[in-house]
Amino acid sequence: MNKLKILVVEDDDALRDALSITLEAAGHAVTGAAGGQPALAQIESRDFHMVVSDLRMAPMDGLQLLGEIRRRRPNLPVLLMTAFGDVDKAVAAMRGGACDFMLKPFEPRDLLAQIERYAIAPAAEGVVAEDPLTREVLLLAARVARTDATVMLTGESGTGKEVFARYIHDQSARAAGPFVAINCAAIPDNLLEATLFGHEKGAFTGAQAAQAGKFEQADGGTLLLDEISEMPLALQAKLLRVLQEREVERVGGRKPVPIDIRVLATSNRDMAEEVRQHRFREDLYYRLNVFPLHIPSLRERSGDILPLARHFLGIYGARNGRHVALSPGAAAKLAAHGWPGNVRELENVVQRALILASGDTVEADHLLLARHSTPPPSVIVPAQPAPLAVVAEERMESISSSNMKDLERQHILDTLSKVGGSRKKAVELLGISERTLRYKLAQYRDEGHIENE
Prior knowledge:
By secondary structure, the chain is of the alpha/beta class. It has four domains: 5-119, Rossmann fold (3-Layer(aba) Sandwich), CATH 3.40.50; 132-294, P-loop containing nucleotide triphosphate hydrolases (Rossmann fold, 3-Layer(aba) Sandwich), CATH 3.40.50.300; 298-366, Orthogonal Bundle (Helicase, Ruva Protein, domain 3); 377-446, no CATH class. 45% of the residues lie in helices and 12% in strands. The chain contains 19 helices and 14 strands. The protein has helices at residues 13-25, 36-45, 62-72, 87-95, 108-119, 132-145, 161-170, 189-197, 214-217, 233-245, 271-276, 282-288, 305-319, 328-336, 342-356, 388-398, 404-418, 423-430, 434-446; strands spanning 5-9, 29-33, 50-54, 78-82, 100-103, 151-154, 179-183, 222-226, 247-248, 257-258, 262-267, 291-294, 325-326, 361-362. The strands form four sheets. The protein has a five-stranded parallel sheet with strand order 2-1-3-4-5, with helices on both faces. A five-stranded parallel sheet has the order 7-8-11-6-12. The protein has a two-stranded antiparallel ribbon with strand order 9-10. It starts with a strand and ends in a 7-residue tail after the last helix.
């Protein structure tokens, strides 16, 4: 068992000491607290993997302590101990967010088994969780993975929401089944329906053969609807019906096809606000948001920055037969950066550094970090906007050796600047949809070309 930091809350000194001895003998680091207030003070000043608390205490009982922990550290698992007569309170605690409760007296091995079950998230290849906040999120992901509940993963772009979604699939009973992901923002509106639900032969021009959609492809496994907030409203109604009926009807088809899938969804937007602005159906939101899981930004889990950097160094270095390390200066520079593009930005920086580092050490000057001094396009208001042709000519000179992707990005950003940051005016000039523009800008934020809005 891994060494864990555990907080034991018990107002009986003898029992608290006995619990501490049991846990320390198993290799854990134990902190004791004689009541609710001292426990909260410990939680504010230190990180813990788990809290083991008595239910019947005074003046703050276990239920009140649980409520405070849920408010301050919502992902921290709390295991309650109770006497037989307090079972009703223990059930209420479970509803309030306790991971489980144990009836006194209990055997030491039973306590250790509960801690191993709830305080340790199973390891998985490609998942880096060194920061305490990330470990808490991963533990929640492991717990919900044991169920078949629909999960809504939210967080800034580039935080690794798909990595956590794959982790949920891999830790679930559906792990042997397919994991199918679809980016709802990357597919044109007129193709998204057929891509999701499939189509029959002749359903539309170019449909020369029947094709199963993503829902059918994920049968027996997990379907990830990435960037679900970008799905058109008209298609949201059909998606809701599929989730309710657990059957899908192909475009041009008449016979429903039953499906057995688990659905996960991601968004980098405030979904409740999307509902309030009538951009997302409220009934579909509640259908998807059965278990919300927020993925913190990289700046909120700074303990992951260097482990992730070394993880990426290992991956991309191995592809070229290299073993590369970070110098102390490079490590310090990475740790001090704000990472508005989150994990994806860090990955890009590491890849560039490997190209620039000719030896077996990445130095600080190999790390090309974006300054992120450009205001977000939505608030760019130049005092005297330069004519588009002039700006384009100047930018063309600076990127003459770049590829078409660079030209496209500069054209889009120049157009936004020209119209004072108005997306509505920009899409008219660019001849693209607002959804496509949002997707492009999200890419540019991830790559570090613009700041988060």
